[in-house]
Write a structure and sequence with these properties.
alpha+beta; 3 helices; two-stranded antiparallel sheet
Length: 77
């Protein structure tokens, strides 16, 4: 499962590799830097293409669940 057929990897925000904005995006990287600096940040993770985070768990159940729509909800306005 993934975006455009790419396999997704799960990178926790408290992982060192999450600080790399080129891999995780600026928002996740800034949250990761804040968490690793000891600032209060809610626990979380970012989904990235598996090739951008070598060694991160790929095809993890969290990747599937986070992309599913909650029951009774529809997409759109």
């Amino acid at each position: 499962m993934g975006f455009g057929g790419a396999e997704l990897a799960v990178v926790p925000l408290d992982a060192e590799r999450a600080k790399d904005a080129a891999a995780t995006g600026a928002k996740a990287a800034n949250l990761a830097r804040a968490a690793l600096a000891g600032l209060p940040v809610l626990p979380g993770f970012v989904l990235v293409r598996a090739d951008r985070a070598p060694g991160a768990p790929a095809d993890h159940p969290a990747a599937h669940g986070s992309l599913e729509q909650p029951p009774g909800r529809t997409r759109g306005p």
